[in-house]
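Last lecture ended with a question: if I hand you only a sequence, what can you say about the shape of the protein? Today we answer it with a concrete record. The protein is Transglycosylase domain-containing protein. Below, first the input exactly as provided, then the predicted structure, then a couple of comments.
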Amino acid sequence: MASKNGRKRGLAAALWRVFGFFVVSAICGVLAAGLVVPGVASAGMAVSGSIKYFDNLPGDLVVAAPSQSTKVLSADGKTIATFYAENRVRVSLDQMSPYIKDAIVAVEDSRFYEHGGIDPQGILRALASNFTKGTNEGASTLTQQYVTNVLNESRLAAGQTGQVVLSGQKTIGDKLREMKLAVELEKKFTKDQILEGYLNIVFFNRDAYGIEAAAQHFFSVSAKDLSLPQAALLAGLVNSPSYFDPSVHPDNSIQRRNLVLSDMLAQHKIQQAAYAAAVATPIKLNITPGKQGCAAADMAVYFCDYISHLILNDPAYGASVTDREQLLYRGGLTITTTLDSRLQVVAQQQVDATAGANPDKWGASLVSVQPGTGKILAMAQNTVFLPEPGKFDTQLNFNVDSKDANGNDLNGAGGFQPGSAMKPFTFTEWLNEGKSMTTEVDASRRTYPLGFPWKDSCGKVLGGYSTAQKIAGLGTADDLRNNDEGYYRPMPVNYGLYNSINTATFAEAAQLDFCGIQKVVDAVGLHSGVDNAPVNMHQLGNLLGGTEVSPLVMADAFATFANDGTYCAPIAIVGITDPSGGKLPAQASSCHPAIKPEVARGVDSVLQDVLKRGSGIYIQPKVQDLFPTAAKTGTNNSNGSTWVVGFTTGLATASFFGDTMAGQSRVGQNVTINGKFYTAIDGYMLAGPQWANYMTQVAGLYPAAGFPAPPASMAGTPTPTPSH
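The predicted structure:
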């Protein structure tokens, strides 16, 4: 029974080939008459009618630039990452080896320069072979293949992946339309233009679209440098990129390559000696694997991720997220960023040295901003983007706001509590209100109950510190505490800041208008990293850094002190060009006066003392011995978030170490990091050396002049520094 059914199927197939032979032969006769002998075409009604039918088929083909790879570059021109849906770099015909041009014509369409888009002779030859041998030989010209690729590329660009038509899926209608479009295409473009377009669009490998990407992928050379055997191998690939893949099927590949070489010899494109040398050449692959997206970035993985979110979140690059994704992955953009690769290398080394592979997954990060421009110069953390044995992996960017770490998903870290690193902003308002840096305040006071007479001209102070009220269930915190005993006494304001005394900060605030503190914080760009809301300084806990702020935002705020009080919003993209050289919107420095210059100088003066005699005195190495440097340490109540944010006049850097896991609820006490046990982590212990080692190596790359001195009237009459 099976044998009988098999004979029936064989007979049906044979009849179908006969039918197809006559149908397509008739079409070819019409096309031959119309294209080759126009005078004959008008002689018969049947031929005339057929030509009319063919002429009425759609002939318009929009030849848009094919999808190209987008490159993200550092400020010094080094590749950070490449984005692509199809790995393609378009090159002109004169930037391709003459061997690849001759090879592709020889094997795919030897009559390319003779026909008008359709080759009736080739079609008849293929039909005869298919009929007599039962094979499935194609007869599409290079122009027809180009048409198919252009149509499919336009479908992919429109997100219509389900409508892509492969060669084996074409109906007679598809073939006729392809023929008509090929004829019309030949009227609009020269043969060299069509060949150039074809070689730039055709598929060679899943990581290589177009001849430039193929040359780079298989041989790590440019298309213009392809040798004869290399070009012949690549030309042979397009017939079946998987079957002739030299990395998977080398025997198939070399047989196909030699067939191409034989065709080139027969068509007098190469001489016998060149042919003999080429066929004797073994396949010598030098594969450069495709690197797509931030996971495969050459450097600065998380900065790359930040850049991608800047593009995907901004309507300036497309009305919808889909439009923006198409632009990023198919637009062939060159995105030039602010990143300084010299700083990035050092930043990555330092975060890895601090906590590169700790089993408890504590996080470390560094981010640098240039005062006066807002340019982000480095962004690093101690994790890997994809899982690796023995590594702390996460796709969460520790350095930026949640919206820039996870698109519009607010599940990102969104920053960390800055703790005492917030204290300089209260001190800024102190100086802003005309008070002296050396005025004595009562840092012995620890109780600020509900109903305390705070000054607030634009709101209401919320919260309180009173153990008695807490016991009574009135919703306050315990009495205010300092990190160390012995500081509950009157002291100069500057002394209270550089030694990071909590009770001194509250004693300052008791004499200030909270509305003024709020204005300072807003002016330097401080905001919640979770939801982008302003840090509410009317909430008492925020005087000591109770709201999560990202390291990037902290570095940028401190850059304002370095820049004589002028704030510049952070920027990361300084140029975007499309393949034709057109300019797309980029970021430009956006600066405004935020703090009076003399006030900024007063803050700088005290923050220099943090490193010389205050809470940062134990930080090693001593950066201040090399450059004029100012900084502030920060630690939250649980010791799970620790900081040093510091600057020269040319570089502001936030260094963070702490808990980056979901909820950020771990306590940084009784922990072992890199083999060393810590009873309680403080800002100067891990974040401090990380910051100092980094700044020691890179601060000199940017001008690090001395800080201008504050007015003598602001310094006041020095008060003797109390002993510890």
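Comments.
1. The CA atoms of residues 36 and 55 lie 15 Å apart.
2. The longest strand covers residues 362-369.
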